[in-house]
C-alpha cells in the first residue's frame, strides 16, 4: 500500500500499482472527467502514470495554470506531428507551452510558412486530435536517442546535454518526440486549434546561430473558448499601445536616434509630467525628498555595487574619455547613486528613515529582437526611490510604501491585483546575503504588512533576490492580462557594499536597511500598460487635454482664446482647434484624440458668453449650452470625482 497526500491535507491509502486517473476516480467521477494533468511530489506526471511510492498528488483541470500547460504542451506535439506530415524533411527543435498557447521552433529548410498555410495545419491537427491518441512516455538510452536524431543537429545538441538514463520520449499516434512529460489523457479533448503567427527565432536565442521558424499556436477544449480568445486578441490589437501612441500623438521612435529609445511628443510629455507630478505630490506627503543624479557614473561605482558584474558584459559598454584609463557607464540603476547621496554625510538613528526619490533614467541594452514598443526599451525612466532605515523601522516603512502603491493603482483604475511575496528558499539559505536574523525580520515585516493591508497574496519560496525579500504587485488589466507593476524590495547587500552607516542609540555604528521601490516601475512600460488598460480613455484628472475648444469658423478665434484663458486660470487643460475646417471634421478628429469634453463656439455662444458642451460618448448630440462659469464649475466637479485623496 502507498499513502497519498492531497492538497487539502487529506491522506488516503492505495495499492502500490494505481494509476493517477484511478486515484481521481476513487475520489469522484466528476473529478476524473475533468482532470487533464497531475503532478506527483511537484513533478508533472501523466494521468496514466502508475504510482508506487508515498507522496503528494495534485490534480489539474483546464482551469488551472498547470492544466493549461499540459494541454498546450500536448497540442504542441500534435502540431509537430501535423507539420512533419505536411512538410517532409523538416527538423524539429523545441516546442514548449507558453502563457497563451505554445510554439514550436522548426527548421523548414527552404520552405517558407505563410498565413495561407495556417488553415491546412489547423485542419491536420484537428484530424489527428479526433483520432483520440494517448500519450505514452518511455525511457531511451543516450545512444539510441542520438541515433534517432542523427539527421537533426538541434535535437542532437539537446540530447548531448542530457544525462544518460534521464532521457525520455513521448509517443502518440505515429509520432515521437524528446520530452520530459506532463500530457493530457488523450488528443480528443483538443477541440479547437488556431495557428496564430509565424516569426523568425534563432536557435537558442543566439543571433550567431541558425534562424528557425517559430510557429505559434493555441488550442482549447471548446470552440467557444477559441472564439472568445480571438475576440480578445482583436480588442488587444485595437488597444495596442504602439497604435494608440501614434493615434494620440504621444511618442515616436526614430531610426536615427536609435532602436528602443522612445521620443516623447508634446502630448506624451504632458502625460508623463502629469503622472510625475501626481506621484511627487503624494511622495512629498509621505516624507520623500527629491534628488537628482547624472545619467552616467564611473565604472568603479558599478563595480562596487555589483551591477557591472551583472550587466557589464551584456549591456552598453564603457564610455571612454580623452583621459587615459577613465571609463564611465550609462547607469543601469539609480541605487548606487542614491547610496552615495546617503554617504555624503554621517547620520544618527534619529535622522532615519531617509527617503530619496528620483525619476531616474536608466539604460540597459536589450537585443533588438526583444524590443517592443514602450514595454521593452533601451532607455527608460524609473519612478525610483530608496528608503534607508533602521531594522526597527522596516515594518512601518514597508506598510507606508504599500499605502502609496495602493493609492497609485486606485487613482489609475487598476482595481484587480494580487501581491506576490517572494521569500528565501528555506532549503538553501547559504545563497543569500545577510544574517538569518535580518532575513527573518524582513520576511516577517513583508508578510505582516501585506496581511495588515488586506492584500490578496501569494507566497513564492525561492523567488527572493539574493540580497533581500520582495513584494511584487501583479495587476490584471481590462482584458484580463496580468502585468507585473510596482515592486518593493528589501536590500541588505548595497548598504554592505557601500559601507552605509548610522550611529545607533547605543553610540555604535550600524548598517541601515535599504528599501527599493517603484510603484509605476518604468514610466515607459507603465504608460504602455495604462494605454492598453484604458484604451486611451485615461481618468479625467490625468488627461493631457481635458477639453478641446472647436470654433465654427475662424471668426470666433478671439472668443476661443478667451475661453481657453479662463480654463487655464482654473487649471483645466484645453486646446483650441480654430483651423479652417468643417466642424464635423474637427469633432471627428477630437473624438479620435479622445478629448473628454468638446466646446463648440459660434455666433450664439460668443454673443451670450456661453459654450456648447459635447461629451464623449453622447452620440452626435450637442448636449447642453452652459455659461463659461457654469461649465468651469461643472468640469471641476467631474475632475474631482476621478481624483483620490492620499492620506498619510
Ligand atoms: Zn511532451
Ligand atoms: Zn534601487
Short description:
By secondary structure, the chain is α+β, with helices and mostly antiparallel strands.
Task: Provide tags for this entry.
eight-stranded mixed beta sheet; five-stranded mixed beta sheet; globular
On the 0 to 100 scale, the average pLDDT is 93
How much β-strand is present in the residues?
Answer: 25-35%
Spatial shape: globular
Q: Catalogue the ligands.
A: zinc ion
Describe the structure.
A hairpin with a 5-residue loop joins strand 26 and strand 27. The protein is built from 20 helices and 35 strands. The protein is α+β, with helices and mostly antiparallel strands and 648 residues long. The strands form 9 sheets. It has an 8-stranded mixed sheet, sandwiched between helices. It has a 5-stranded mixed sheet with strand order 2-1-7-4-5, with helices on both faces. Strands 8, 9, 10, 14 and 15 form a 5-stranded antiparallel sheet that branches. Helix 3 packs across helix 4. The radius of gyration is 30 Å and the shape is globular. Bound molecules: zinc ion (ZN) (2 copies). The site of one zinc ion has 5 residues, from loops. One zinc ion binds next to loops.
How does the SSE layout of this entry go?
Elements: E1 2-5, E2 11-14, E3 18-19, H1 20-27, H2 29-34, E4 37-40, E5 43-45, E6 50-51, E7 55-60, H3 65-86, E8 91-92, E9 97-98, E10 101-107, H4 118-130, E11 136-139, H5 142-148, H6 153-160, E12 168-172, E13 175-178, E14 192-202, E15 211-220, H7 223-238, H8 241-247, E16 251-252, E17 263-264, H9 266-285, E18 289-290, E19 296-298, H10 299-305, H11 307-311, E20 319-320, E21 327-330, H12 335-342, E22 354-363, E23 379-389, H13 394-411, E24 417-423, H14 436-452, E25 457-461, E26 470-476, E27 482-491, H15 493-497, E28 502-503, E29 509-510, E30 513-518, H16 523-534, E31 547-551, H17 557-569, E32 574-577, H18 583-592, E33 597-601, H19 603-608, E34 610-615, E35 624-627, H20 628-642
Parallel strand pairs: 1-7, 18-22, 24-25, 31-32, 31-33
Antiparallel strand pairs: 1-2, 3-6, 4-5, 4-7, 8-10, 9-10, 10-15, 11-12, 12-13, 14-15, 16-17, 19-21, 20-21, 22-23, 23-30, 24-26, 26-27, 27-30, 28-29, 33-34, 34-35
Helix pairs in contact: 3-4, 8-16, 13-14
The structure holds zinc ion (2 copies).
One zinc ion is lined by residues 73, 77, 170, 179, 183.
Amino acid at each position: 500500500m502507498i499513502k497519498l497526500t492531497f492538497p487539502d491535507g487529506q491522506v488516503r491509502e492505495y495499492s502500490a500499482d494505481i494509476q493517477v486517473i484511478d486515484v481521481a476516480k476513487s475520489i469522484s467521477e466528476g473529478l476524473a472527467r475533468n482532470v487533464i494533468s497531475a503532478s506527483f511530489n511537484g513533478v508533472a506526471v501523466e494521468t496514466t502514470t502508475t504510482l508506487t511510492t508515498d507522496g503528494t498528488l495534485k490534480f489539474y483541470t483546464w482551469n488551472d495554470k498547470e492544466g493549461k500547460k499540459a494541454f498546450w504542451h500536448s497540442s504542441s506535439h500534435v502540431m509537430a506531428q501535423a507539420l512533419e506530415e505536411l512538410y517532409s524533411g523538416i527538423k524539429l527543435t523545441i516546442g514548449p507551452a507558453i502563457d497563451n498557447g505554445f510554439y514550436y521552433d522548426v527548421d523548414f529548410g527552404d520552405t517558407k510558412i505563410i498565413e495561407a498555410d495556417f488553415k491546412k495545419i489547423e485542419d491536420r491537427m484537428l484530424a489527428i486530435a479526433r483520432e483520440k491518441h494517448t500519450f505514452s512516455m518511455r525511457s531511451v538510452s543516450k545512444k539510441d536517442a542520438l541515433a534517432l536524431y542523427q539527421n537533426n543537429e538541434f535535437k542532437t545538441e539537446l540530447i548531448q546535454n542530457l544525462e544518460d538514463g534521464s532521457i525520455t520520449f513521448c509517443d502518440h499516434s505515429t509520432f515521437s518526440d524528446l520530452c520530459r512529460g506532463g500530457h493530457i489523457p488523450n488528443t480528443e479533448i483538443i477541440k479547437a486549434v488556431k495557428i496564430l503567427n509565424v516569426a523568425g527565432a534563432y536557435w537558442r536565442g543566439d543571433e550567431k546561430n541558425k534562424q528557425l521558424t517559430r510557429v505559434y499556436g493555441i488550442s482549447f477544449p471548446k470552440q467557444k473558448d477559441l472564439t472568445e480568445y480571438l475576440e480578445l486578441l482583436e480588442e488587444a490589437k485595437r488597444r495596442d499601445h504602439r497604435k494608440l501612441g501614434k493615434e494620440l500623438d504621444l511618442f515616436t521612435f526614430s531610426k536615427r536616434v536609435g532602436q528602443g529609445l522612445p521620443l516623447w511628443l508634446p502630448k506624451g510629455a504632458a502625460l508623463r509630467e502629469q503622472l510625475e507630478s501626481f506621484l511627487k505630490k503624494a511622495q512629498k506627503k509621505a516624507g520623500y525628498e527629491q534628488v537628482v543624479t547624472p545619467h552616467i557614473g564611473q565604472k568603479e561605482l558599478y563595480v562596487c555595487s555589483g551591477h557591472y558584474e551583472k550587466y557589464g558584459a551584456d549591456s552598453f559598454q564603457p564610455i571612454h574619455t580623452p583621459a587615459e584609463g577613465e571609463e564611465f557607464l550609462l547607469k543601469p540603476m539609480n541605487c548606487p547613486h542614491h547610496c552615495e547621496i546617503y554617504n555624503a554625510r554621517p547620520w544618527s538613528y534619529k535622522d532615519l528613515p531617509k527617503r530619496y526619490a528620483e525619476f531616474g533614467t536608466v539604460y540597459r541594452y536589450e537585443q533588438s529582437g526583444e524590443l517592443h514598443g514602450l514595454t521593452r526599451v533601451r532607455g527608460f525612466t524609473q519612478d525610483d526611490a530608496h528608503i534607508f532605515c533602521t531594522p526597527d523601522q522596516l515594518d512601518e516603512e514597508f506598510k507606508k510604501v504599500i499605502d502609496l502603491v495602493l493609492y497609485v493603482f486606485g487613482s489609475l483604475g487598476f482595481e484587480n491585483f494580487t501581491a506576490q511575496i517572494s521569500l528565501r528558499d528555506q532549503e538553501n539559505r547559504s545563497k543569500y546575503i545577510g544574517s538569518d536574523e535580518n532575513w527573518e525580520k524582513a520576511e516577517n515585516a513583508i508578510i505582516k504588512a501585506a496581511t495588515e493591508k488586506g492584500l490578496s497574496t501569494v507566497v513564492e519560496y525561492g523567488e527572493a533576490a539574493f540580497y533581500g525579500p520582495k513584494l511584487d504587485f501583479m495587476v490584471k488589466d481590462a482584458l484580463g492580462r496580468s502585468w507585473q507593476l510596482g515592486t518593493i524590495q528589501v536590500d541588505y547587500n548595497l548598504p554592505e557594499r557601500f559601507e552605509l552607516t548610522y550611529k545607533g542609540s547605543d553610540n555604535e555604528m550600524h548598517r541601515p536597511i535599504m528599501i527599493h521601490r517603484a510603484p509605476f516601475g518604468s514610466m515607459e512600460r507603465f504608460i504602455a500598460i495604462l494605454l492598453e488598460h484604458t484604451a486611451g480613455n485615461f481618468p479625467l484628472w490625468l488627461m493631457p487635454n481635458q477639453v478641446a475648444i472647436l470654433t465654427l469658423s475662424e471668426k470666433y478665434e478671439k472668443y476661443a482664446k478667451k475661453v481657453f484663458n479662463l480654463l487655464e486660470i482654473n487649471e483645466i487643460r484645453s486646446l483650441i482647434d480654430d483651423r479652417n475646417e468643417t466642424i464635423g471634421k474637427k469633432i471627428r478628429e477630437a473624438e479620435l484624440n479622445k478629448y473628454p469634453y468638446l466646446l463648440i463656439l459660434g455666433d450664439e455662444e460668443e454673443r451670450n458668453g456661453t459654450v456648447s458642451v459635447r461629451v464623449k460618448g453622447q452620440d452626435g448630440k450637442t448636449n447642453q449650452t452652459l455659461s463659461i462659469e457654469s461649465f468651469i464649475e461643472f468640469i471641476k466637479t467631474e475632475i474631482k470625482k476621478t481624483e483620490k485623496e492620499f492620506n498619510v
